[in-house]
Amino acid sequence: MIKRFWGKVGEINHIRSIQLTISLAFSMLIIVVVAIVGFLSYTITGNTVEKNSSEYVYQLIKQVNYDIEYYLKNVEYIAGNLQYKKNVQTFFKSDGEDNYLQKYTIQQELDAIVEARKDIINIMLIGNDGQLIVNNPKLKLKTELDFKDQSWYMKALQNKGIQFSESHVQNLFVGQYDWVVSCSTLLEDPTDGSVLGMLLIDLNYNLINDMVSKIELGEKGYLFVISPDGDMVYHPKQQLLYSDIKKENINLILKSPDGNIKIREDGLDKQYTIATSSYSGWKVVGAVYLDDLAPYAPYLKRFFVIVSFLAVLVAVLSAVLLSSNMLHPIKDILKSMNQFRNGDLDARIEIQQNNEISQIAKEFNAMTIQIKTLIKENKEVEKTKRKTELKALQDQINPHFLYNTLDSIVWMSEVGNNKDVVTMTSSLAKLFRISISKGNQFITLAEELEHIKSYLTIQKIRYGNKLEYNLEVDETLLKNKVVKIIIQPIVENAIYHGIKNMPGTGTIVIKVAREKEGMAITVSDDGVGMTQEQIDKILRKVYNKEKDSQGVGISNVVERIKLNYGEEYGLQFMSEPYGGTQVKIILPIEY
Q1: How far apart are the C-alpha atoms of 584 and 371, rounded to whole Å?
Q2: At the topology level of CATH, where does 383-588 sit?
Q3: Where are the beta strands (DSSP E) in 34-162?
Q4: Residue-range domain boundaries for the chain
Q5: Distance (Å, rounded) from C-alpha 569 to C-alpha 558?
Q6: Rounded distance, CA 166 to CA 227, Å?
Q7: Is the CB of residue 114 less than 8 Å from the CB of residue 120?
Q8: What are the pLDDT digits (tens) for 278-332?
């Protein structure tokens, strides 16, 4: 009872382990799929957002670059008008000292431009002879100043066209220290190209700041402008740059084409977005931190984590329910198997599904029906075996044979033939000892041959010269197991129906040899023989389990051979009238 209980517990645990295995397998598969899909979705979405944001920033930078370019072209237009204005050309070609009125007129025109434009701080015309016209006559030039030392002056001398400087503090005049971007160009005579002087326009730095600072690039992002030489034209943290507190990777920017480049700065991922002016060569650069490009990335990540968690939770619950539903029919099968194992041969499985498990159930039901039928048939076979074994034993204890043998022993004792008495008595004892064989159904071929030799010894003494016998045996088969007492009934029939009624001496030959994959025991006699009609009559009686004086024991031999070895084994008869009879016993080789 305890073993059965723990056996059931083990089965339950086994089922649960299968269910757990299936659930874990499904869950792990789904978790991996969800993780991959979630990761790819988050990555692709993040990359898409970052790409779109970068493209948006690039378009902003290009627009700023366009605005600055448009503004500088406007300044160049103003410079061009002043540069080739007739009174300006006339003034610097003549002796300026003698033309005060003309100088005053030019100064008024310059002042009118400055007053009309808040983006221009100063306009100054410088002649080769040192003549100077400034929009504001009250401005006093520093006495120790030399224009030729100024960077804007040298740049205009070295290059044609209008030149734009970096942002700087203009220190030409006493008491004036404005942040400006200087635009300078040569005053040339259009007739011969000779240099008459220099034009300087100081642009208000705050105007550029207003144009650029309105662009927002995230919480930490900013925009700056550099010249083709790498000088800083504009930066929202200009003072920090000059103080070396903050630095920008100018060399990298100068070497890079327009577009986006990424760097790592102070532990943060940073992106430079560059747009270069084809007009001025200035580079407008947007510095954006990647976490500002996708400000919703943390929320997006949290969203994907929550969705993935819910998907995994639903998947795990589905896997558990699915595995439970899958294993429920298997549990029914195991239950029916246990009932069948415990002796309930009518146990059946009722499954409504139409799948592989239902097919197993159908096969199990068919198997139980077949097993029940086989058990019933086996009981009948065993019952028949017991009857045939009992009948075989009864046939061996032939009262006529026993009576005749004992009578012969008594007769030989009376005449003093003690030697034959001893031989016959010893052979009779061996005969019965092997017949009984401790109740075993099978004996070795050696024991079977010993049994038939004992029988023939007794018959030889009784019949004298009437009977001769000979044994030819393949000794490699002596240990083969055979159903006991299968040769003696055939030999007995050979003596009584083949040799006894013939004139002269009869001989019985017993041969044992291998044949195909089995062995054959052949019993031959040279007696009166039989016609084919007589053979057919014997076979009908043998297979119909009938016996007469000529079929004693043979039917029993055939039945026992077929019961123990199968229908393919049994006896073969060959005989001719006055040509003897041969009976072959076909058996398998079993050790």
Answers
A1: 35
A2: Heat Shock Protein 90 (3.30.565)
A3: 120-127, 132-134
A4: 84-208, 383-588
A5: 9
A6: 7
A7: yes
A8: 888 899 998 888 777 666 666 666 777 787 778 778 877 877 777 777 667 777 7
| Cβ-count burial 246-265 (b if 16+ within 10 Å, e if not) | eebbbeebeebeeebbeeee
Tokens 């197991």 correspond to what residue? 481
3-state secondary structure of 256: coil
Burial of 279 (0-12, 13-18, 19+ CB in 10 A): middle
Same fold, 84-208 and 383-588: no
Would you say 164 and 134 are in contact if contact means Cβ atoms under 8 Å apart? Answer: no
Instruction: Give start and end residues of each alpha helix (H) in 84-222.
Output: 86-93, 100-116, 151-158, 205-213
Work out whether strand 581-588 and strand 570-575 pair parallel, antiparallel, or are unpaired: antiparallel
C-beta separation of 31 from 312 below 8 A: yes
* Whether 524 contacts 537, CB under 8 Å: no
Two structure tokens written together for 564:
């123990």
Q: Who's near 285: CB < 8 A, 6+ residues apart?
A: 61, 223, 224, 225, 226, 248, 253, 272, 273, 274, 275
386: left (phi over 0), alpha (psi -120 to 50) or beta: alpha
Look at the block and give the residue holding tokens 């040279």: 526
Label residue 130 left, alpha or beta by phi (over 0 means left) and psi (-120 to 50 means alpha).
left
Residue found by looking up tokens 């990298």 in the block: 252
**CA 281, 282, 284, 287 torsion: positive or negative?**
positive
The pTM of this model reads 0.50
Query: Are the beta carbons of 168 and 180 closer than 8 angstroms?
Result: yes
Burial of 91 (0-12, 13-18, 19+ CB in 10 A): buried
Among 115, 208, 221, 126, residue whose Cα is nearest residue 167:
208
What's the angle, vertex CA 188, arms to CA 184 and CA 190, rounded to 5?
135
**CA 266 – CA 462 distance, rounded (Å):** 125
CATH of domain 84-208: 3.30.450.20
CA distance 330 to 349: 10
At which residue do the structure tokens 């009779």 appear?
A: 428
pLDDT tens string 540-572: 877 765 555 455 578 888 888 988 898 899 999
Give 205's contacts (C-beta < 8 A, 6+ positions apart).
Answer: 167, 178, 179, 180, 181, 234
CA distance 36 to 444: 72
Per-residue pLDDT tens digits for 476-533 = 999 999 999 999 999 998 998 889 888 889 999 999 999 988 999 999 999 998 888 8
User: Of the candidates 469, 504, 512, 521, which has an alpha carbon nearest to the alpha carbon of residue 578?
Assistant: 504
Report the C-alpha gap between 182 and 203 in whole angstroms.
6
Q: Which helix or strand (DSSP H or E) is residue 587 part of?
A: strand 581-588
